[in-house]
Structure formats: C-alpha cells, structure tokens
From TrEMBL:
This is biotin--[biotin carboxyl-carrier protein] ligase. CDD domains: BPL. InterPro entries: aa-tRNA-synth_II/BPL/LPL (IPR045864), Biotin_CoA_COase_ligase (IPR004408), BPL_C (IPR003142), BPL_LPL_catalytic (IPR004143), Transcriptional_repressor_C (IPR008988). Pfam families: BPL_C, BPL_LplA_LipB. Its EC number is 6.3.4.15.
Length: 278
C-alpha cells in the first residue's frame, strides 16, 4: 500500500489518485494512461522512481522516501499555452513547500539565488524555469511532457520531484532535502499539500486566461531577480542581469551592452556561479 491520499480540496474538485510504493516513472505512467484514453484529472504518486527523468532526458535520482508525483490533465486551452502550466506547477509547489518548511535562519545558498518574501530573504524560492530552491539549493524539480491525442487536444503530464529524505550527490549545482534542512515530512504529507495547492493555482490559470496572474505570483517568489545570471544554451553562455520574467514566461537578461535578451530555454546559474567561465 502506498499510503497516499488526496487533499480535501483535490477530492472535492474531483481529482483521482493512483498511488505506488515504487514505480519506473510517474510521467511515463501518466502518458500511458492518456494513450489508453484516460480523460485526465488523475495523479500518479510514488515514494520511489526507478527510471525517473528530468529535463532534456537527464536521469532523475529518486531514492525511497522522496516524492515523485505526476498530474495528467487534458486542458481545454490553446496548445501554445500548455507550456505556461509549468508556472502553475511552480507556484503550486512553492505554496505547498512554503507551508511545510518553517521559517527560520536563512542561509545564503551556494548558488546565490535566495528569493524574497515580505522584504526579507525567503527559505523557498522559484528558479526559472522549473526548480524550487530552499536556502539557495535545489529542493524540487518539475517536468512537463505533452502528448497529442486523436481529437487534436494535448494531454499534459506535469511531473513533480521533491527531495524529502535525501538529495542526489555529485551534481554540478547545490541540492538539498527536507531532511537536510531538519524537517521530517513524508512523501505522503508533501503530496497532500501539493494536491490542494494545485487546485488553488490551477483555478487562477483558467485554461490560460489567468496566466498573467499566475506569472505575477511566480515573480513574487522568484530567485535571482536583479542578480547576475548566466544561462547555458547548449554550450553558448548568455551573461547579464536577470531582469524579469516576461508575460510569455521567458527569462529576460539585460546584457552588459544594455541589450535585453529573451531566453526560452537553458540552464541558469546565479551569483558567484554566474561568473564562472565554463
């Protein structure tokens, strides 16, 4: 038995749940369900992934006790707006984790990407395009995958990975877990909070009509705005100041020559890391 349950708001909204102790990949399971005709509105949650993946096909390490969860939806929205669901996911996960991680002394992260809240440093911050940081280190990640259906609509698998009990080692960036931060919360507890936070934020999105409001919330919890940034785009490094996220969800970098560069994809580094030449 997995032990997962939906939060009360998610249950009321009619979401369904398939829970697992271990699974290959929750995203793979969700997309297989879509191919088999599932109408969406179903979560796939597991305490371990044995074949998890992150962006650009990278392996996502998920030891037992961490949370891997994917929501399958088939939104009635323009397919070009589907990518903005990543910001809905980020705001949702930020809400869930901010409620779980208590306020306390905030350490400056190695990546120098601390967010702000109420005029002070925040323990939880969103890192463009799809990471959640705690004290400047990666605590969670998000992966969106789409699959076109026979009726022309797109099924969207929104994957969430949260380091509850352990963070992977040997990464090129700092990572942390709730356990490292002195917080004992199970994958089931995190999922309960996430499923309810999703209902709230998805309601704001309104099939893409409310994306401006979602982006406003995302910017309010963003890491690194106003700080030096380096974006690696397949080996090409763009450097400057992280100015904002525009209304299309692109990262806007102001280069040394004052040119504003819109970034649609890439690996982002802040602060001292942004100065490293690689």
């Amino acid at each position: 038995m997995s032990g997962f349950t939906l939060g009360s708001k998610a249950r009321t909204a009619g979401y369904r749940l398939r829970g697992y102790d271990a699974i290959g990949s929750t995203n793979t399971e969700a997309l297989a369900a879509a191919a088999a005709g599932d109408a969406g509105g179903v979560w796939f949650a597991a305490k371990q992934q044995t074949a998890g993946r992150g962006r650009r096909g990278r392996q996502w390490e998920s030891p037992h006790g961490n949370l891997a969860a994917t929501l399958l939806i088939v939104p009635d929205a323009d397919p070009t707006l589907a990518a903005t669901l990543g910001f809905v996911a980020g705001v949702s996960l930020n809400r869930a984790l901010s409620g779980i991680l208590p306020a306390g002394i905030v350490k400056v992260g190695i990546d120098g990407a601390d967010g702000m809240v109420n005029g002070g440093k925040a323990r939880i911050a969103l890192k463009w395009p799809n990471d959640v940081l705690a004290d400047g280190a990666k605590l969670a990640g998000i992966l969106l995958e789409a699959q076109k259906l026979p009726d022309g609509r797109h099924a969207i698998a929104i994957g969430f990975g949260v380091n509850a009990v352990a963070a992977p080692a040997g990464l090129p960036y700092p990572a942390t877990s709730l356990a490292d931060l002195g917080v004992a919360r199970s994958a089931e507890e995190i999922f309960d909070a996430l499923s309810d936070a999703w209902v709230e934020t998805f309601g704001i999105w309104q099939d893409g009509r409310g994306i401006a409001d979602v982006l406003t919330q995302w910017r309010g919890s963003a890491a690194g705005i106003g700080a030096p940034v380096a974006v690696n785009q397949n080996g090409t490094i763009v450097r400057g100041i992280f100015e904002t996220i525009d209304d299309a969800g692109r990262l806007i970098v102001r280069a040394d020559d004052n040119q504003r560069i819109a970034i649609t994809a890439g690996d982002v580094h802040f602060g001292a890391t942004a100065s490293a030449r690689s």
